[in-house]
Design brief:
The complex is a heterodimer. Chain A is of the alpha+beta class. Chain A contains 15 helices and nine strands. Chain A has one domain: Cytochrome-c3 Hydrogenase, chain B (Orthogonal Bundle), CATH 1.10.645.10. Chain B is 71% helix and 0% strand. In chain B, helix 6 runs antiparallel to helix 7. Chain B starts with a helix and ends with a helix. The chains are: A alpha+beta, B mainly alpha.
Chain lengths: 371, 358
Amino acid sequence: MFEEVGTTAEGDLVINVGPQHPSTHGVLHLIITLTGETIKNVEPHLGYIHRSIEKMCESLTYRQFIYVTSRMDYLSSHINNHGCALCVEKGLQIEIPPRAKVIRVLMDELTRLASHQLWWAAMGMDIGALTPFFHAFREREAINDIMEETCGARLTMNYMVPGGVMVDLHPDFQKKVKAFIVLFKSKIDEYDELLTNNTIFQNRMRGVGYLSKADAISYGCTGPTARGSGLSCDIRKLYPYEIYDQLKFDEITEVDGDCFARYMVRLKEMKQSLSIIEQLIDNIPSGDFQAKTKAVLKLPKGEFYSRIETARGEFGVFIVSEGGTTPYRIKFRSPGFSNLSALNHMAKGHKIGDLVAIMGTLDLVIPDIDR
Amino acid sequence: MLSLEHITHSIQSWLYGSFNARLALGIEFLIVGLGAITLFAILGLVLVFMERKVAAFIQIRLGPNRVGPGGIFQTLADTLKLAVKEGLTPDGADRFLFNLAPFLVIIISMLALAPIPFARGFRIWDINIGVLYITAVSSLSVIGILMSGWASNNKYSLLGAMRSGAQIVSYELSAGFSVISIIIFTGSLRISDIVASQQNGWWIFKGHIPAFISFIIFIIAVTAETNRAPFDLAEAESELTAGFHTEYSGMKFALFFLSEYVNVFIVCALGATLYFGGWMPLHIGTWTAFNHVMDFIPSSIWFMGKTFSLIFLIMWFRWTFPRLRVDQLLNLEWKYLLPISLFNLLLTTVIAIMGWYF
């Protein structure tokens, strides 16, 4: 299965990048073929953190399986939970209370912000600038504190349940989020000063890892990766869920299709998320935070699919139900997997340093790809 | 006023008074050697600690603060850890070259330390081709790096070493040219002459625009030559894990680490000597009172202050800039720095001939 690592007949160098490598952000294993410093071929090998989550879900009830999905894309666990809850609600045909909807959207956007901040931090590290990491984590810490208060967890929240959210917001939630908005608004320009406007950074990013719109579609890319190529694919706009159709925000697209375009998409999305949070934070309706559901959930016989926009792209949940308390089959469509498939196409002909930059702009989360 | 010069002189006269000339010279060698090694170790410790504190300051964190007051013994503890670690030699490595490389690198760094004047009359060897000697010796370090990369039997190391080879050989040119422009002004390669020529003003002020341009080129080139970010392609943590020293552990790794910092010190000391007057105090024209006050500050403090300011500048680069790509690195040298420094050399020569400098 594995290509022989060493030297090929043509004298090309075949080397392993990962599964333990500082720039693969986890246990991604790439086998790259090099001519000098130029990349001829990139072959990702997966499975180092495969936990067979889909199979595990088949033996868990509809309330239980949501917890497992926090461990997939751990940087947007709220949104994963949300997607699963949406699918179960679709099957049960529950209408959730307006307060729960607003809370869910708020949490999603906070998660998206935190995820993009971490991506920005790691992007700088990949390019060789170590300082952005600490600056982005300073703001991310505030979000984590907000999450911790309300959800009791900082990474794997398990806050969204079928019918709404698990517990009501912490009394300090609004105050803290407002404080965060003030903090982040004063800091987001620093991001540009530190990294975006740097000439070295722009030279490293511009014209590197080009992905055309047609290729983005054929590789199944979604999220900021595809939007950097000019493909409009924001699920929040195209198939609005919860209250996204009532909110004012822009879908960010860039036409260049290179690393810098993908970078700018994420940077601008942070500002959009911030504006969504600003719109909602003073308008959280009162009422129940959870719809009344039965103690044991049973989805009717049939197939259900829901899609949601995570920080990395489209996350799909497909449930096949036989009418029992556990799903017959669950399939997750994770954004990272499809985005990774375009890596070879993008990296060919570039240098090793570019491969790292391209991987950075794909925003890979390996447990999301392997599941 | 008692200065380092008096101490060295009294030691020398005592040695030559008490022993015959040959034995005295031998003892001097021993003292100087021990002094150099001690200085080396202290510089390493101080610079590593300084780097960590500077990095912490730039990255809004505290840095080492547990071992000793303000964490000043942290590097000592780290060195101790590295000293007791096993020095692995990977399977399939060229054992001789693999183990030789770190020592070669550190010996070369030590050699380059020789002609640097630390204070008035306090230097190891005032050779008449001092500047040329430093440039020549410091460019030898590429051999050690290539050796380590090749002998490690690791492809990352090899890539890092090859990058480093291309980089050091290229940037050597610009560094050399920028040094030459100061030599054109002074007319001497001897470092004590260069320092003496800055009695009434440092070259960065006296040398008009060409001196300033050559200083900027010098700083860029030596940052690249010492493999520091944004030119740390030989290590390139996120690309090549650790580049040429991926396979090294324990004290052998520590030697690479140490030599990197000492190299930074050497090039900054050279920069301070060439452009900022070395140990020469700041003198402004006819302000006699001011000049007199400046003379009161010991020359060693002047030298260290200037050198460490330049070191801080280079550390600042490291923690602010992203890394260049290998082709951009070579483009920068061959397409921009080299033509500019050649033109600058011409400009310097014209100014020197016409006597337009102060």
